[in-house]
Specification:
Butyryl-CoA Dehydrogenase, subunit A, domain 3, 3 domains, four-stranded mixed beta sheet, 8 strands, 47% helix, globular, disordered N terminus, oxidoreductase
């Protein structure tokens, strides 16, 4: 038993601020057209083939969904993070969450906040038409979550250009992206670094000589691939630096709330997709004559997942509204990512249990949802780190 692939229930949308209701409704409506062009079945087909979701990207452009989040004075549609969140949630609800969308919108946020007028014109405005795809280069093999231990080094030359040498890992969409937003040390290896010293944030052209990609074999049922990216003395111009030299880490952190909220939307949308499949199945599966959905052992996990996802969704849109109003949305954004990913994973687990053995048949498209939502407990920031943040920053407990 499957749901309709283009079934996006606008009436079931979460409560949002009245000023945002029309925006969110229009996004959900536009995604119906996207899903008609690129349904979940094609998403899974591209994933199995190891290919890309180019048709999905083109459909986003055609629906003007990439314009959302870019200020109107730059030719965008406005809508801020609330609009971007709605796009990601609606796409995930129909099972076609594009990771490239999340990466590009997050990266252009850093440029909007800290880039020059020329950089904004060259790299942000170009995303509206889909001509610019950006991946994110932060994680390194040895450093892991501790980005302060990053070894990728950007040395400034006498003419103002930089030479970049190092390695990044788990870089999603590196083969599709024309640029990478790269965090690199500008301090010498023996110099101290911190949030406001020793790093640069660079927008690097992926076609430059000295960049090598090595694909990682990661099975997660999505049409984006992950890579190790090697930089062998790559020369980039001075204008590749975003913002101020030394403040690259600070520039990156100032945009992470946007990433947290978008990831929450990604997770919650998929959680809703999994839940709807389980509910539809539980209504008709009746091996003993009565639909299994009548049994509390089946009902309760699904009901709990729904309640927890709805609660997380309220925090998510509240965080987006706070961010858009210029407030410090750190607490809400981190809670949204934590609660959203956990609730969505619980929804998938409940859906698997409801479907029983059939959940593990590829064509049922149930267990196929699990790897992606399990990954979101770890990346782009693990939930343990978010709990540390809440413990220290919200509750005021001692720092570990």
């Amino acid at each position: 038993m499957t749901i309709q692939e283009n079934d996006v229930n606008v009436d079931a949308m979460p409560t949002v601020h009245p000023d945002s209701r029309e925006l969110v409704a229009s996004v959900f409506d536009a995604v119906k057209g996207v899903a008609a062009v690129f349904p979940r079945s094609l998403f899974l087909q591209r994933a199995r083939e190891g290919g890309h979701a180019r048709e999905l990207w083109d459909a986003l452009v055609a629906a003007d969904l990439l314009a959302i989040g870019v200020p109107e004075e730059l030719g965008g549609a406005g809508g801020g993070l609330t609009g971007t969140t709605a796009v990601m949630e609606a796409l995930a609800r129909v099972g076609v969450p594009p990771l490239q969308y999340s990466l590009t919108t997050f990266s252009r946020e850093a440029i909007l906040k800290h880039g020059s007028d020329q950089q904004i014109q060259d790299h942000v405005v170009a995303t509206i038409s889909g001509k610019r795809k950006i991946c994110l280069g932060v994680t390194e093999p040895e450093a892991g979550t501790n980005s302060f231990a990053a070894r990728t080094l950007a040395r400034q030359m006498p003419d103002g250009s930089y030479r970049i040498k190092g390695q990044k890992v788990f870089i999603s969409g590196a083969d599709e992206s024309d640029h990478i937003l790269l965090l690199a040390r500008t301090a010498a290896p023996d110099e101290e670094v911190g949030r406001r010293q020793g790093f640069g944030l660079f927008l690097v052209d992926m076609s430059l000589p000295g960049i090598e990609l090595r694909r990682l074999d990661i099975q997660w049922y999505a049409p984006e691939n992950q890579y190790e990216v090697f930089f062998d003395d790559v020369e980039v111009p001075a204008e590749a630096l975003i913002g101020e030299q030394g403040l690259g880490f600070d520039h990156l952190l100032s945009c992470l709330n946007q990433e947290r909220v978008t990831v929450a939307a990604w997770a919650l949308g998929l959680g809703e997709y999994a839940l709807r499949k389980a509910v539809d199945y539980a209504k008709v599966r009746a091996p003993f004559g009565t639909p299994i959905g009548a049994h509390q052992a089946v009902q309760h996990p699904l009901a709990l997942a729904k309640a927890e996802m709805e609660a997380a969704r309220q925090v998510m849109y509240s965080a987006a509204a706070a961010y858009d109003s210029g407030k410090d949305a750190g607490e809400q954004a981190n809670m949204a990512k934590l609660l959203g990913t956990r609730a969505a994973l619980a929804a998938v687990e409940a859906s698997i249990q409801t479907h029983g053995g059939s959940a593990f048949v590829y064509e049922s498209d149930v267990v196929t949802l699990w790897p992606m939502l399990r990954v979101l407990q770890i990346a782009p920031l693990n939930n343990e780190s978010i709990l540390n943040y809440i413990g220290e920053r919200v509750l005021g407990l001692p720092r570990n």
